[in-house]
Amino acid sequence: MINLKGRIIILLFTFLISSCGTFSEPIHNQGKVDINKSNLKQLNGNYSRFSNTYLDTNTAYDFNDLFQCFYLWKEKKLRDTSTSEKDFVALEVIDEKRIKVSFIKNGQIVKSKILKGELTENTFVFNGRNFLIPLIFINFGERHRTRISLSENGSLNLDAFQFAMGNFFIFPWTSGHYEEYDLEFNKIAEK
Fold first, then answer.
1. Quick check: 117 and 148 in contact, CB under 8 A?
2. Which segment of 59-63, 115-119, 139-143, 174-178 scores lowest on mean pLDDT?
3. What residue segments make up the domains of the chain, in order of their start?
4. Rounded CA gap, 134 and 119, in Å?
5. How far apart are CA 189 and CA 191, in angstroms?
6. Which one, of 102, 80, 78, lies nearest residue 90 by Cα?
7. pLDDT tens-place string over residues 123-173
8. Per residue, what are the HEC states of 8-64?
9. Which has the closest alpha carbon to 43: 111, 126, 144, 105?
10. Distance between CA 162 and CA 177 in Å, rounded?
11. Which of 40, 33, 54 is nearest to 185 (CA)?
12. pLDDT digits over 36-52, tens only?
């Protein structure tokens, strides 16, 4: 029989193994611009809030909404899915590790946030952990990753990944993940 110390080590090891989430390789690399330090500022601009790539998603996490993909969806006023031409997401590259994301609704900035990320495999990747309780007998966690690049026509391409897991004392370990690739958000001309 395993002693308490052994059980704790097994639980911690299981938590570490199960709490990571990674992207698969991009499905369609054709027509995408490689992002690097010299052309990162090409991401600057305004993009439509909703994807022009239709997704039939029945999850609580809607990958069709660009603002939600940048982890800023928690506020109720941002969950409104009605859209107008005045609703969009603005990206502003600050430096090679930070991008400012602003949600504009009806011509007004509703929320802005600076997201930290890194250049990886010719894309820019944001990592976000929205919720984490790392206790011995109860542990829950949720992780989001968003990978962005540009298409040759100037649209924003996005790959999104969400992973959630949990364990409650003697109940079985549960986890699940959602991922979508090659979402496209049109660039909006400056007005």
1. no
2. 59-63
3. 4-188
4. 29
5. 6
6. 102
7. 999 877 655 555 666 666 777 788 999 999 999 998 888 777 777 666 656
8. HHHHHHHHHHHCCCCCCCCCCCCCEECCCCCCHHHHCEEEECECCCCCCCCCCCCCC
9. 126
10. 5
11. 54
12. 999 999 999 999 988 88
The CA-based angle 5-6-8, given to 5 degrees, is 65
Q: Look up residue 11 and give its two tokens.
A: 């639980």
Look at residues 111, 28, 25, 97 and name the one whose alpha carbon lies nearest to residue 68. 111
Q: What contacts 133, CB < 8 A, 6 or more positions away?
A: 139, 140, 141
